[in-house]
Design goal:
By secondary structure, the chain is an alpha+beta fold. It has a single domain, classed as 2-Layer Sandwich (60s Ribosomal Protein L30, Chain: A), CATH 3.30.1330. 23% of the residues lie in helices and 25% in strands. Strands 1-2-3-6-4-5 form a 6-stranded mixed β-sheet, with helices on one face. β2 (24-27) and β3 (30-33) form a beta hairpin. The chain starts with 6 loop residues before the first strand and ends with a strand.
């Protein structure tokens, strides 16, 4: 793949885009994902009102998007986490660590920001940038 081209990534194993955007875009060795919510891919509805359960589902959705593009979580180099309430940080972080900072794997760089609201009244949204060697 040429470095100046971009390829849209789409999988039915993650919720469909709810606007004019791609689930992810690959450009060269990089993958840039849209934010994933804790929504069930089949129904598009949030799995729970609980931030830990939403984080778990968001990261399962992210894993599916990465897999569709031939990437793995271990190749994620940067994440951005959006939280409606910073009081949810610890619960989100506990689940996040299982997926993105397991023992022996360098954790990606991360920004976590509080936002006024998220689509579908979600409590957390996560986007990533991944890179293949």
């Amino acid at each position: 793949m040429s470095d100046h081209k971009k390829t849209a990534i789409v999988t039915k194993d993650a919720p469909a885009a709810i606007g004019p955007y791609s689930q992810a875009v690959q450009s060269g060795n990089f993958l840039f994902t849209a934010g994933q919510l804790g929504a069930d891919p089949a129904t598009g509805q949030l799995v729970s009102a609980d931030v830990a359960e939403q984080t778990e589902q968001a990261l399962k959705n992210m894993t599916a998007v990465l897999k569709e593009a031939g990437f793995e979580m271990s190749q994620v180099v940067k994440t951005t986490v959006f939280l409606v309430a910073m009081s949810d940080f610890a619960a989100m972080n506990e689940v996040y660590a299982k997926y993105l900072a397991p023992e022996g794997v360098a954790a990606p760089a991360r920004s976590t920001v509080a936002v006024a609201a998220l689509p579908k009244d979600a409590r957390v949204e996560i986007e990533v940038i991944a890179r293949k060697s």
